[in-house]
Each structure stands twice: as structure tokens, then as C-alpha cells.
Design brief:
Bound molecules: calcium ion
Structural class: alpha+beta
Distance between the termini: 47 Å
Helix content: 10-25%
Length: 458
């Protein structure tokens, strides 16, 4: 359960893994994100999946600690059960074990932990470099729901279609969402094939009829994914006071979007093939426990906004239900890569600007009795902030507003250091999301990366 700050958040803790003490690392000893990686069994010549946590520029192989007998004593029975599985599904079901697992792993990784020759050997054996490790999803994503919780995103996108009335009347009352597809969720580093689909007839020639072909307006959406922990029984809603206990941790999520297909298909039932061809998650689960120091008040609502209905309102959630997570998007074209030019930053925003909190999303999702299951993924929706630099997709970033003739102005291209221009994504482009949390008096923690490269349509 999320019970506030404790000794695992102590900013003075250091690790014997030197790279974890670098002030700029995403993965100091206070973070310990969970991952699953592929490892090779020499004897059977087989790859298998194993649990790890990230520390500095290394992965700690938990299986190696288990094999060494580190968790044989009775006091470790519960935590050993969590560590014995190839993925994190058991821990997700037991949120009260998260802090215990953190404590046990921190104890091994602390620079003041005592150890003889045997421990020193185990330290060497149980580490592998992140850059040489292949990661897979931290556990099987069972179901995927995508929300629309950023009012700044909803307002900007709404203004493209309804300049006088950007926000639909339900927005401030009900968290808007739709059911996505879990089968096409891929892990960071997986290439993304440009989808083909139906596109609307040109605006100036509606009688021409739709066409079918490669998407021309391919976009990313910068989101945070919430991975569900215990979840609820069908028919039994989760109350807002308990909602946060059902979130296991957060990851980065890129909800790739085919804007031309979306525009043609979304009415009246919402997104379909424009969204479900691929969604990328970062492979590391940053637990809510690790994020405790970075909780903040929910985004204040103007006094003229309606108060949420009672089932969506909780004083405590209003005070501490936000998370101050800085989110960044970078782009590197194939030409930039070839010429050795670093990815450029397209935007920077914060997760704290969302109109609805994570607890409100969980509560609303289950309010009709719908059951959330361990491993379900809830997307926040594109995280955009109030300023143009904090827009979380190209649809918003290259939008230049409505002209004096009442029609949209031509989109404003983004200039790349290679001299190329982008309005939407080109083949060979790599999109990279990063996220981190900083607060005075605490260690900076980060989420690692969520990246994908666009392949040409088949
Ligand atoms: Ca989305």
C-alpha cells in the first residue's frame, strides 16, 4: 500500500554500483524499477525470461540472488515467492510486498552492506550492463484502455475541428476513454511498421470517395501508462479512496496514431484502426512506492469548473493525487543518425497538468462494475501542458491555429538539424520519450526510454 515516505526514499543512500551514485542517473538506489530481461542458459542453449531491477547503468539479476540462496531464510519466504516467478505478476497482486521487495533489494545494493568474499563474488555475478541486455514486457498486458485526461490536449485538438467550442460538454464531468487493444502493445526498441488504411476524400472534393494506402499523417502520442495491480471483482467498483492501491506502477507509453485514418473512421464510435496497429511501452515499471516523493496536488481547476461528482471526488486525492513527472520527446531522422547528429528535443511537459488524476481514472473505469485485472494498462491520454513547448504530439506541435478566413492555417513544419522538415513522421524517424522526477531534498529518478523507429509501409 502507498503509505508515504519511508527509509527507502532516503536521499543519502548510496550503492556499491558506482554508476547509481551519478546525480544524473535515472536509476539510483532510491528508484529500482522492475524489468524482465532475456538471459541465456548455456547448458540447454535456450533463452529464458528473468526478473531484474535497474541500478545505475546495470541490471541486477534477481534469479542469480535466488540461486545463491540469499532468500532461503524463513524471513524471506514471502518475498522469495514474488521473486521466483519469471515476471512481476505476483508482486502486482500483492501491493503490500512492494516496499518489502524494495527494502530487501536495497539492502543488497547499499554501499554500507557488509559482505565477505562470497558476497563480493555474487555482486559481480548478478550484474549485467543495461546496454547489452534485451528487455521484454514486465508482465503480460491483459487489457488496454486509453484515456483523454489532458484538458490542454483535448482543447487544442478540439479547436482544430470546433474553433468556437473546442471542449465537448461532457469533458469536465466524465473522464473520457476508449478500449484499445493489448495484442499490439510492443516494448521499447521494437520497429513500427507504417500502417495502411482508409483515408477520407479530399476536403475540396468530397465526391472523390475514400482511398486506401499507407498512412500519410503518422504521429506519436506522449503518454504515461499505469499498470494495474490487484484490480477488482466483476460487479464491485473500486472507491476513489482505495484507487491508488490498485496501481502497481507507471511506465512510458507511445500511442502511435494514424491521423488521416483517425479523421475518417472516428465518428461515431471512436478510434479503431488508426490506433491499434502498435503502442509502445517502456520496459521498466517505476513503482508508485518509488514515486512517493514526487506526489503533488491535483491540477487546480478554475472556480467556474464543475466539481466532480461525489464518486470521483476525494479530498486526499485532490491534495496528493498528482505526480510531478517531467516528460520529454526527442526525434532523430535516419539522415541525422547517418550524420551523427543527436536526437533533438521536440517538447517538454509535466504529468502534473492532467485534468483527471490516476485515482479518478481507475475509479471511473470500475464505477459500472467493470473489472480491472493485474497487468491491465491504462493510458493517460496525450500529456500536453498549457504552453506550446509542452504539446505531446505532432498534431498539436505543428498546428498553427485558424486563419482570418476561418480556415486552418497551413501547418508549421519543425526544422531538424539536418535541414529536413517534419509535419508528421517520416520513414526512418526514431521517436524517443524520456521522463524523470526531481524535487529538492530527494534523489532524481527516471523512467529510462520508450523508443521506436518507423519502417516503410509494406
Ligand atoms: Ca492516446
Amino acid at each position: 500500500m502507498n503509505t508515504g515516505l519511508n527509509e527507502t526514499h532516503d536521499p543519502n543512500l548510496k550503492s556499491w554500483v558506482e554508476s547509481a551514485n551519478d546525480p544524473n542517473t535515472d536509476f539510483p538506489i532510491q528508484n529500482l524499477p522492475l524489468c524482465v530481461f532475456l538471459t541465456h542458459d548455456e547448458q540447454d542453449d535456450l533463452d529464458f525470461e528473468a526478473q531484474g531491477v535497474l541500478i545505475g547503468d546495470q541490471v541486477l539479476d534477481i534469479n542469480m540472488l535466488l540461486q545463491s540462496g540469499m532468500f532461503d531464510a524463513d524471513e524471506y519466504n514471502d518475498v522469495a515467492e514474488v521473486f521466483e516467478r519469471p515476471d512481476w505478476s505476483v508482486l502486482a497482486r500483492k501491493p503490500d510486498m512492494v516496499r518489502e521487495a524494495r527494502r530487501v533489494l536495497q539492502r543488497f545494493l547499499r554501499d554500507d552492506s557488509i559482505g565477505g568474499q562470497q558476497v563480493r563474488r555474487l555482486r559481480r555475478k548478478s550484474l549485467r550492463s543495461i546496454s547489452e541486455t534485451r528487455f521484454v514486457a514486465p508482465f503480460l498486458v491483459a487489457n488496454y484502455t486509453d484515456f483523454y485526461a489532458s484538458i490542454h490536449h483535448a482543447s487544442t485538438v478540439g479547436a482544430m475541428f470546433r474553433p468556437d467550442n473546442p471542449l465537448l460538454p461532457n469533458y469536465k464531468h466524465v473522464p473520457i476513454g476508449y478500449h484499445g487493444r493489448a495484442s499490439s502493445i510492443v516494448v521499447s526498441g521494437t520497429d513500427i511498421r507504417r500502417p495502411k488504411g482508409q483515408q477520407s476524400p479530399p476536403d475540396d472534393n468530397p465526391s472523390a470517395g475514400p482511398t486506401f494506402g499507407p498512412c500519410k499523417l503518422l504521429d506519436y502520442e506522449l503518454e504515461i501508462g499505469a499498470l494495474i495491480g490487484p484490480g477488482n471483482t466483476l460487479g464491485e467498483p473500486i472507491s476513489i479512496a482505495n484507487a491508488r492501491d490498485h496501481i502497481f506502477g507507471l511506465c512510458l507509453l507511445n500511442d502511435w496514431s494514424a491521423r488521416d485514418m483517425q479523421k475518417w473512421e472516428y465518428q461515431p464510435l471512436g478510434p479503431f484502426l488508426a490506433k491499434n496497429f502498435a503502442s509502445t511501452i517502456s520496459p521498466f515499471v517505476v513503482t508508485l512506492e518509488a514515486l512517493e516523493p514526487f506526489r503533488c496536488p491535483a491540477e487546480p481547476r478554475p472556480a467556474s469548473d464543475p466539481r466532480p461528482l461525489p464518486y470521483l471526488f476525494d479530498e486526499n486525492d485532490q491534495r496528493t493525487g498528482g505526480y510531478d513527472i517531467t516528460l520529454e520527446v526527442y526525434l532523430q531522422s535516419a539522415d541525422m543518425l547517418k550524420r551523427g547528429l543527436s536526437p533533438i528535443r521536440l517538447s517538454r511537459g509535466s504529468f502534473k497538468n492532467l485534468y483527471w488524476t490516476l485515482a479518478q481514472l481507475v475509479t471511473h473505469h470500475t464505477s459500472n462494475g467493470c473489472n480491472l485485472q493485474p497487468g491491465d494498462l491504462l493510458g493517460s491520454g496525450t500529456v500536453s501542458g498549457p504552453t506550446p513547448e509542452s504539446r505531446g504530439c505532432l498534431l498539436e506541435l505543428t498546428w498553427d491555429g485558424i486563419g482570418p478566413d476561418g480556415k486552418p492555417k497551413p501547418r508549421k513544419p519543425i526544422e531538424l538539424p539536418s535541414g529536413e522538415k517534419r509535419i508528421f513522421l517520416a520513414d526512418g524517424d526514431t521517436v524517443i520519450f524520456k521522463a524523470f522526477c526531481e524535487r529538492e531534498g530527494f534523489r532524481r529518478i527516471g523512467f529510462g526510454e520508450c523508443r521506436g523507429t518507423i519502417l516503410p509501409a509494406l
